[in-house]
């Protein structure tokens, strides 16, 4: 006779052990260490909630404070390895194996620990991939999550930063895993139920909000004139001719410049209503002027952004908000939206090679992927047509039969030929290859593969890779916009000139853009304060961004 | 002429370069430069450190007209070495001030500086002393020296000492005036004393609104070149007096200030003590409302400044 209830029984045992340290579902904070020791088993797969924005920071510290003689060899499956505690867990031997997606600020230390053998790496994923694996082969036995408030039944209010929580809870709780939430406070009635209480087993009152990183705030004061020029090229040379209305923007300064040029330069080109009406995007403060001047119809968000809460709540026609009035974000849904319902992804990168592969990995840093490779890829399962998608498909394969021709998602890489500290954007060989060799990885960490990227924009012009018919043309198109980098100077001038005649390369003058017009006075806001004023005082920037 | 100066009505002083500021400040086409970049009077020290030089050494000096009246003018370029004082940079300003004394013409100094250039520190420090002496000597001869502060580099170090000797200071919210910069304080006293990354703290401690409220600046304007122009015309009406009783009065004022506010831990406490209604709101207020609340409450500089 088979026993089909082993997991349910194991959960029952954990619940019983946990209740000895709890009053109902509520775990008092002094009991947290003993509680975690009681409900976690060595070798468990544990999801410690945290991504590029919100962090279950109290639970992370408590987990890192355990003794590896009690709990060891955990398999961490989590979106972000961001807090020092996330790696302390490995340093102390509490955890051994790691599957993750993003590591931003810990990118150097995670690389050192991989080299040192402290971490056994499963794989680096995109967010959506990791979420997918939660439901197939990386289902957590324990999830440690974060919310704003809970009632005594465990109903959770996540506030605007819902992000990964519903996905993590769905995968864990419905598969007999244990869910523990840290909340700022316990209340009689939560403002809205983001996570139903019967999926949440225990709640810890942290007494302070979970940490959130303001990752999507770009100070307009730091936008350069070169970035403004790249933004003008993108708007006039890509957004306008393809009529891109549904899109996702990366977090760099180039795309922040595009957002700030819409109400000025975009308006002058008569593009309002024709481009940038629907976004899969976090509430970027730099989008405020475009929203306020009526450019944007709808935005769905992966997460929230620090300081944007009241602004978003005051614009329910634009954002997805709950019955309580505040934003409801959802990373899994927004990533899906970015993949299937957007016609364009545009973002910055650190290195582009001669094939057009791009990577944000530099030697000794493993920053992970986050969502960019998902946004920045052509979805082979897409079936609904749209004008930009069909036009791009036609450019890529003009001789194929139209009704049988796939469209193409526009995947645009934008940047200056020399980036931060004058490091060239274009390279012969990606640093990611060296990293893969040193760590003996099967795959080099590539952010956007060459067969997905359709356009490269620099201050030298736009390379349309859809129009390239062979590898040589592709290489020369890339060299043709690489300016004075070594890659650019090694171009074949005659071939580049022919590509330009065919419109594969378009210089600023080909688009009737005078580089001298790329001036900061074009920006709809030139400072964080301008953004605050444009929001009617609703945007409340964190103090580190304020210069008043 | 760049696109930005073509539209002077909305030229941000903070964003503009030194030459754009001069164009927007003075009467049209009235400016003529002394020792211009074509004379290539560059720093003799920077090449030793393999650092790039600038043909005007980061300061523009010359004469022009403001509201029809003749003025001498110096403008620092904050985008070159943070507008810092070096040997040539300092000598150009000293020379201008000495000329002002001889000609009996008023001077505008458009500050945008982090202080003395580390690479030529001795020459720079000497220059600061010479400039302060030249300011006082010019003022003793009846010349007004007006400082304009609202650039990206602020007015720090030796620049703030010179500002302290001016007849009148015009400041915008973005303008910062302080001897030690945020990073310097943090490095020497620790992040608990002063977190240089907390920009709101930096601005409420050193920024234009605070300086205006405690009498560290005389006219508060929007970050707009035309506002700086109007304020300069107004400042040139201030009385051109500089004598011992006045300086002694100023000394007494500063002593009082230290006594009243020396124990305050944050600028907001000072604003409270001055009698400002809802002082925590000060940083977020638009100019008009800020000036309304500051009126009758702010500490006035005595005639020495």
What does this structure look like?
The complex is a heterodimer of chains A (548) and B (305). Chain A contains 19 helices and 21 strands. Chain A is of the alpha/beta class. Chain A has 2 domains: 24-212, Glutaconate Coenzyme A-transferase, CATH 3.40.1080; 220-531, Glutaconate Coenzyme A-transferase, CATH 3.40.1080. In chain A, the strands form 4 sheets. In chain A, strands 1, 2, 4, 5, 6, 7, 8, 9 and 10 form a 9-stranded mixed sheet that branches. In chain A, strands 14-13-12-15-18-19-20-21 form an 8-stranded mixed sheet, with helices on both faces. Chain A is globular. Chain B is built from 11 helices and 9 strands. Chain B has one domain (5-241): 2-enoyl-CoA Hydratase, Chain A, domain 1, CATH 3.90.226. In chain B, the strands form 2 sheets. A 7-stranded mixed sheet of chain B has the order 1-2-3-4-5-7-9, with helices on both faces. Chain B has a two-stranded parallel sheet with strand order 6-8. In chain B, strand 3 (69-76), helix 2 and strand 4 (107-111) form a beta-alpha-beta unit. Chain B is globular. Chain B has 305 residues and is α/β, with parallel strands linked by helices. Chain A binds chain B through residues 516-517, 519-522, 526-527, 532-533, 537, 543-548, and chain B through 2-4, 7, 10-12, 14-15, 173-174, 197-203, 207, 209, 283-284, 286.
Keywords summarizing the entry:
heterodimer; A: 548 residues; alpha/beta; Glutaconate Coenzyme A-transferase; nine-stranded mixed sheet; 21 strands; 31% helix; globular; B: 305 residues; 2-enoyl-CoA Hydratase, Chain A, domain 1; seven-stranded mixed sheet; disordered N terminus
CATH superfamily of chain B: 2-enoyl-CoA Hydratase, Chain A, domain 1
Shape of chain A: globular
Helix content range of chain A:
25-40%
Strand content of chain B: 5-15%
Tell me the radius of gyration of chain B. Answer: 19 Å
How far do the termini of chain A sit from each other?
73 Å
Low-confidence spans of chain A: pLDDT under 50, at least 5 residues? none
Q: CA-to-CA gap between the ends of chain B?
A: 36 Å
CATH topology assignment of chain B: 2-enoyl-CoA Hydratase, Chain A, domain 1
Largest sheet of chain B: 7 strands, mixed
CATH secondary-structure class of chain B: Alpha Beta
Cα Rg of chain A: 24 Å
CATH class of the largest domain in chain A: Alpha Beta
Quaternary structure annotation: heterodimer
- Helix content estimate of chain B: 25-40%
């Amino acid at each position: 006779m088979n026993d089909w209830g082993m997991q349910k029984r194991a959960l029952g045992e954990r619940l019983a052990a946990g209740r000895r340290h709890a009053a109902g579902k509520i775990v008092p904070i002094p009991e947290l260490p003993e509680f975690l020791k009681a409900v976690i088993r060595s070798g468990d797969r544990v999801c410690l909630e945290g991504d590029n924005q919100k962090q279950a920071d109290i639970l992370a510290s408590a987990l890192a404070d355990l003794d590896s003689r009690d709990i060891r060899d955990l398999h961490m499956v989590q979106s972000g390895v961001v807090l020092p505690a996330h790696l302390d867990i490995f340093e102390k031997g509490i955890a051994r194996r790691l599957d993750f997606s993003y590591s931003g600020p810990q990118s150097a230390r995670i690389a050192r620990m991989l080299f040192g053998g402290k971490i056994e790496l499963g794989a680096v994923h995109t967010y959506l991939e990791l979420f997918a694996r939660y439901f197939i082969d990386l289902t957590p036995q324990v999830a440690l999550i974060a919310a704003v408030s809970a009632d005594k039944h465990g109903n959770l209010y996540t506030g605007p930063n819902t992000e990964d929580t519903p996905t993590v809870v769905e995968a864990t709780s419905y598969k007999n895993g244990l869910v523990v939430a840290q909340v700022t406070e316990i209340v009689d009635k939560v403002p809205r139920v983001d996570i139903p209480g019967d999926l949440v087993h225990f709640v810890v009152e942290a007494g302070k909000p979970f940490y959130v990183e303001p990752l999507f705030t770009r100070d307009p004061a730091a936008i350069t004139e070169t970035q403004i020029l790249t933004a003008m090229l993108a708007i006039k040379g890509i957004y306008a001719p393809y009529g891109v209305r549904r899109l996702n923007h990366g977090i760099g300064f180039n795309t922040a410049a595009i957002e700030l040029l819409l109400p000025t330069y975009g308006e002058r080109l008569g593009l309002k209503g024709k481009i940038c009406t629907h976004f899969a995007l976090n509430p970027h403060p730099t989008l405020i002027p475009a929203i306020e001047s009526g450019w944007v119809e709808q935005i769905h968000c992966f997460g929230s952004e620090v300081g944007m809460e009241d602004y978003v709540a005051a614009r329910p026609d634009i954002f997805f908000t709950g019955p309580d009035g505040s934003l409801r974000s959802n990373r899994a849904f927004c990533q899906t939206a970015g993949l299937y319902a957007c016609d364009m992804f545009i973002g910055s990168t650190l290195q582009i090679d001669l094939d057009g592969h791009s990577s944000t990995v530099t030697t000794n840093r493993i920053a992970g992927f986050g969502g960019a490779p998902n946004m920045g890829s052509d979805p082979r399962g897409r079936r609904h047509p749209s004008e930009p998608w069909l036009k791009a498909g036609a450019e890529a394969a003009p001789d194929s039969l139209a009704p049988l021709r796939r469209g193409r998602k526009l995947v645009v890489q934008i940047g200056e030929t020399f980036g931060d500290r004058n490091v060239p954007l274009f390279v012969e060989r990606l640093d990611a290859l060296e990293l893969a060799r040193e760590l003996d990885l099967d795959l080099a960490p590539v952010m956007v593969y060459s067969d997905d990227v359709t356009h490269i924009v620099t201050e030298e012009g736009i390379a349309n890779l859809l129009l390239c018919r062979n590898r040589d043309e592709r290489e020369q198109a890339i060299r043709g916009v690489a300016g004075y980098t070594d890659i650019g100077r090694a171009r074949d001038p005659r071939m580049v000139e022919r590509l330009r005649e065919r419109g594969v390369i378009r210089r600023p003058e080909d688009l009737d853009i005078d580089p001298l017009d790329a001036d900061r006075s074009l920006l709809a806001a030139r400072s964080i304060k301008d953004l605050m004023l444009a929001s009617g005082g609703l945007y409340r920037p964190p103090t580190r961004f304020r210069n008043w | 002429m760049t696109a930005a100066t073509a539209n002077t009505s909305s030229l941000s002083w903070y964003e503009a370069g030194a030459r754009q500021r001069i164009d927007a400040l003075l009467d049209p086409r009235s400016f003529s430069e002394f020792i211009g970049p074509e004379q290539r009077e560059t720093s003799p020290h920077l090449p030793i450190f393999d650092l790039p030089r600038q043909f005007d050494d980061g300061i523009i000096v010359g004469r022009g007209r403001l509201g029809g009246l003749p003025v001498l003018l110096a403008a620092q370029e904050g985008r070159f070495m943070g507008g810092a004082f070096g040997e040539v940079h300092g000598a150009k300003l000293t020379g201008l001030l000495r000329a002002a004394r001889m000609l009996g013409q008023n001077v505008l100094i458009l500050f945008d500086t982090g202080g003395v250039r580390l690479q030529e520190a001795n020459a720079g420090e000497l220059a600061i002393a010479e400039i302060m002496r030249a300011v006082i000597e010019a003022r003793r001869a009846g010349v007004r020296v007006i400082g304009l502060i609202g650039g990206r580099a602020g007015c720090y170090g030796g620049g703030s000492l010179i500002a302290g000797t001016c007849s009148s200071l015009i400041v915008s919210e973005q303008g910062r005036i302080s001897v030690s910069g945020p990073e310097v304080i943090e490095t020497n006293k620790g992040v608990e004393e002063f977190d240089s990354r907390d920009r709101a703290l930096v601005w409420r401690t050193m920024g234009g609104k605070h300086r205006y409220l405690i009498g560290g600046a005389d006219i508060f304007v929007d970050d707009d070149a035309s506002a700086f122009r109007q304020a300069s015309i107004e400042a040139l009406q201030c009385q051109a007096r500089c004598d011992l009783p006045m300086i002694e009065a100023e000394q007494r004022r500063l002593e009082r200030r230290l006594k009243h506010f020396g124990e305050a831990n944050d600028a907001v406490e000072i604003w409270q003590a001055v009698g400002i209604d809802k002082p925590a709101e000060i940083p977020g207020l638009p100019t008009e409302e800020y000036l309304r609340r500051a009126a009758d409450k702010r500490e006035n500089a005595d005639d020495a400044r």
